[in-house]
Amino acid sequence: MKNGKSASLFIILGLILFIEPCSQLFSQTKTQTIPFQLGNNKLWAGNPSEITILPDLDDSDQSMVKIAAQKPTDSSWLMKINVYPYAKYRLTGKIKTENVQTTDGIGALFNIHDIFSAKTEALVGTNDWKDVSVEFSTEGQTELTVNCLLGGWGKATGNAYYKELNIEFLETIPSEPLIVQDWEPIIQIDANKKYEPISKYIYGQFIEHLGRCIYGGIWAEMLQDRKFYEPIGTENSAWSLNDSKKIMQESIEPLCIMDEQEPFVGKWSPKLSGIGLISIEQKNLKFKKGQYFGYFWAKASPEIEAITIDISSDKETLFYSQSFKPDQFDKYQKYEFVFDFPEDRKGKDDNIIFSLGFSSSQNGSLTIGCVSLMPGDHINGMRRDTLQLLKELDSPVYRWPGGNFVSGYDWKDGIGDRDKRPPRKNPAWLGIEHNDFGFDEFMFFCKYLNTEPYIAINTGNGNIENALSELEYANGSEETPFGKIRAKNGHTEPYDVRFWCIGNEMYGDWQIGHIPVEDYVKRHNDFVDAFRQYDPEIIVVGVGNVGKWNDVFIPGAFDHLTYLSEHFYTSERKRILEHIHFPAQEIQRISDAHRNYRNKWPELYQKHDLKIVMDEWNYWYGSHVFGELGTRYFLRDALGIAVGLHEFYRNSDRYFMANYAQTVNVIGAIKTNETEAELESTGLALKLYRHEFGTIPIDVQLISEKEVASGVLDLAAALSQDQKEITLAVVNAASNPITATLRFDSVSVQKQGTKFVLSDQENDPYAFNEPGQKRRIDISEEPFELNNDQITLTPLSITLLKLKVDN
């Protein structure tokens, strides 16, 4: 059963500002019936259906819609209605079905065409009249399209009947700033009403090979395309040929070719040829004061007198230069260098350039295999500053390597000698996959952060044999074929990876290897049979998606599942109450669907309680400030993530794991530039709850004699594992302080405690943190005295109050 009801109030604040008269504008004060009229028919896809308006046999004064389809259709009866902007409505009605069968649709339902999440339960098969409903927010829209729909994002056949279609105004969503005056609510906590403990894995994270999540975020490499996947000098290459006037044009060969004869790694290696000083360079590097370490592999012809690296600025300042005299010729040799960068460059506008080349008085050649440059304080190739912030997050589990990426990824590309791993085009996203961060690096990452690995395998263009070899590499003894390879790579002991995600989002046609769910069930089951035969102790997470996919996948794969994954992302909402409750609505929607599955298939759930792994969830909107999908997050997003965590707690019986997506830069909790890293607002919220919130949810309610907008305060409360401490969490969406009275039922607490507050001193919902700058959003900690059983909540804040329980 779902935990105690959400602590939001459902009452109205303020005036309605939208007063333009309109004959189709539905009243705020009562429920309105949407009349069925002839001619409002729409074919979205597939074959035409027969849509008729019939008398309601149960009420001769009313009518109903019938949609009949012998061939697969996605069609609807529709009507446009005017609504108030920034308001909440409830759509209700009744649906009856006769032999409704879906092909790739979801069934018979009501929906708001303009708002994707505003759709009722979809019925399939044969059903007598059933009440269905959905609540939704209009955002800024004033006109919506209501559908009686058969099919739905795909096609269906059969007969569907619709009647008693009503729309009910619930409340206006207040504009910003949201001010709630003269309100003193009571927060009532009942420690006797306990719910299923919160899984620690709710605080999971997800990293994918996408944008600057790994490379440019976690990984410390400073040079782009260090293995020369792109031909030097082309549009997509980070490298160019130095155009120094010292180059002598008597060269017999072109100055630079991509040599495919004996490449060091990948398809080719750049070969520089000529007389004089010839080099390649990479611009726009960023340094701060400190030590740096680098190396390169190169093959010199006997004519080469010296190989030179320079680090300089475009303003002709030379920071470092070193020459190397080859002692082997026509053979790749490794050259290493260490230097101290003399000064911080913060605020400087010069362009720092790394160059590598040779000097020769005769026609010579230099083939460059790969290059690397890292800060001297890196930790096994990873950024120390990023890892420090990841330690602060203290996530108990990390999902890797994808995401869409995994469906085109061969894990074998990421093991062995790092310099010899082939660079590839990222199979799902922009840019290059360098394969520097592979299986062993991820396992080191997990060990360093004291977290558990959760590995997704490729069921897109991958096969069982390749997946089994990955499992053996992870968990096999060193006597097994891939255990031997792991041992050769420096890791004799098995990694004992428990969590395995069988594929990613295979329900989507954007996914490499996507096939219909009926076919994918067999693919999933075959993978799991092979995995469990090799290691019966593994924990299997299957690909889930509420709707048609789950309707087929759950019964077809149930015995091959430990948990079922779900994903969601939410966009921006302009008004803060809509915005901060948006993720929680999705968490509740998915949880409600899974409760229905338990009722729908009791014989399956008696075998084991199939819980949810929400292994991707977050806001996703805004400009890409930090590379591909590198959106910025604000204070209001932190409040929304906190409310989302509260909803996970309220559904602790359904959710086993949740992985915030993604951890670094890409819609991330941490943002980095070239030299600095910082916790985002959302990262601070996750850190606060991970460290300070309790384990056993208890009932908490909001009581008020004054009518205010729903969701101004959102609450969660929990006991510690030993039940000696209570934590109360409150999200205040108002732009003014609110004083609340605390009432503890069935338990006595000490008056002295600790209060944590996440806020911005200027109470700006659009405040954000920037790497390398003073934090605007931060967490304060201070002793707290419970005077008069009251607490004053900071505007636009998250407050966690910890109080000891009296013995």
Beta-sheet strand percentage?
35-45%
Structural class: alpha+beta
Shape: globular
Low-confidence blocks of residues: 1-29, 244-252
Give a count of the beta strands, DSSP E runs of length 2 or more: 38
Any idea what the radius of gyration is?
30 Å
The helix content is 10-25%
Average pLDDT figure:
91
Supply the number of helical segments: 10
Distance between the termini: 30 Å
Largest sheet: 9 strands, antiparallel
Structural notes for this entry:
The chain is of the alpha+beta class. It has ten helices and 38 strands. Strands 1, 2, 3, 4, 5, 6, 7, 8 and 9 form a nine-stranded antiparallel sheet that branches. A nine-stranded mixed sheet has the order 36-35-38-33-32-31-10-34-37, covered by helices on one side. Strands 11-20-23-24-25-26-27-28 form an eight-stranded parallel beta barrel, surrounded by four helices. The relative contact order is 0.12.
Secondary structure elements and pairings:
Blueprint: E1 31-33, E2 41-46, E3 50-56, E4 59-82, E5 87-102, E6 107-112, E7 125-137, E8 143-151, E9 156-172, E10 186-194, E11 204-206, E12 240-241, E13 256-259, E14 269-285, E15 290-300, E16 306-313, E17 318-324, E18 333-341, E19 352-375, H1 384-393, E20 397-400, E21 424-425, E22 432-433, H2 439-449, E23 452-457, H3 464-475, H4 481-488, E24 499-502, H5 517-534, E25 539-542, H6 548-557, E26 563-570, H7 576-600, H8 602-605, E27 611-619, H9 635-650, E28 655-661, E29 670-672, E30 677-679, H10 681-692, E31 696-703, E32 713-719, E33 725-732, E34 738-745, E35 749-760, E36 777-785, E37 790-793, E38 797-805
Parallel strand pairs: 10-34, 11-20, 11-28, 20-23, 23-24, 24-25, 25-26, 26-27, 27-28
Antiparallel strand pairs: 1-9, 2-4, 3-4, 4-8, 4-9, 5-7, 5-9, 6-8, 10-31, 12-14, 13-14, 14-19, 15-18, 15-19, 16-17, 16-19, 21-22, 29-30, 31-32, 32-33, 33-38, 34-37, 35-36, 35-38
Helix pairs in contact: 3-4, 3-5, 5-6, 7-9, 9-10
